[in-house]
Structures are given as structure tokens and as C-alpha cells.
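Researcher: Before we compare anything, I want clean individual predictions. No alignment, no superposition, just each chain on its own. First chain goes here; please echo the sequence and then give the C-alpha cells.
Model: Echoing the first chain and its structure:
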Amino acid sequence: MKEFMFIFRFTNLENAWRNPKMDYKMWQDWIGGIAAQNKLSGTGEQLDFNGNVVKSNNVVTNGPYAEIKETLGGYMFVKAESLAEATEMAKGCPIIQTGAGSVEVRPVTDTGNNG
């Protein structure tokens, strides 16, 4: 099995985690279903909407930027046989079900640096 990362992107920063249609039980049920199939590879976390961005020449700015269309809200890792299978799993995400944003599905590349 291969490892994939789900990156949760919200289209409305102000209501991202406070969307009345999306509660934590939806997340628990969706993630629990993946874990029950033994396909949850690593726990993900919700990201805070505050932070800094470090750029070249050590320039530090406040971020993420609220004026952008999408904001990263969290991530998790899953195991699947293919990108297609991982994408099918992502379709059950509460972000998709409530129209709050999108899920980016990315294969994790094994660089051979395992220790």
C-alpha cells in the first residue's frame, strides 16, 4: 500500500471550523471509517488560522493571508492501493459533504531516508 496525504482547504476562513452543517461527529465518523479499514496511516491535526510565513532573505510576514481564496485547515495521512482509491476516500470528507472547501490528495514520496 502507498501513503497519501489529505490536505484540507477551506474556501471560507471565517466559517471554516464553525460551519453549522459540519460538526465533529461528522469528522469522527469519517475518520473512524477509514481507521476501521486499517487505512489511517497517521493522525492529522487541525491547523490554527494564525501563523507566519518565512521567505527568502529571512523576511517574515504575518500569515496565512485571509484575502486568499483558500486556507489550509488541516491534514491527515491514509493508506491506499492507488491515487484513485485515496481520492474515493476523500469524497466522504465533511468539507466536501458540507461544501466548505476541498481536499487535496497527494501521494507521499518515499525518498528512502527512513532513518
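Researcher: Okay. Second chain, same rules.
Model: Second chain and its structure:
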Amino acid sequence: MAVPFRKVSKTRRDMRRTHYKITANGLVECTNCGAKIRPHRACPKCGFYKGVDTSKKETAKPVEEKKAPKKAKTTKKTEE
């Protein structure tokens, strides 16, 4: 098993970890109400996205599946 030859100093360890930082989310203003929202999403306050009201948009109704009519069961009688 490989074992480090020397201890990694705190400075070298921290220099390696400089890119592991949290960045703030970019926020933009809603074009309709001016609220701060995440980009490319509908505004949760007014419901607008790119100038279109998405909250009043009708949702698609589910399509009902057409079922084939059931055939009547017939019993065969054997002739004797």
C-alpha cells in the first residue's frame, strides 16, 4: 500500500483546496414585478416568464384511452 513519504503542510493542503468554495447564486430581476428570481424560471410571485403569464395557462387534459368493446363469451356445446 502506498504511504506518503512526508506530511502535507497546512499551507500546501489549503492551496490545493482554494477552488473548493461556494459561489453565490446569480439572481436577476423579474421583468414584470421586479422581484429577484433565478434566471430562466417563472417568477414565483407573479407567475410571469419572458413576459407571458404562466400561472393562468391551461394544462393539457389527459387523453382517455379507448378500450375495445368486450366480446360476449360463448360456450361451445358438444353434440352427442
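Researcher: What stands out in the second chain?
Model: The mean pLDDT is 82. Additionally, Residues 24-55 form one domain.
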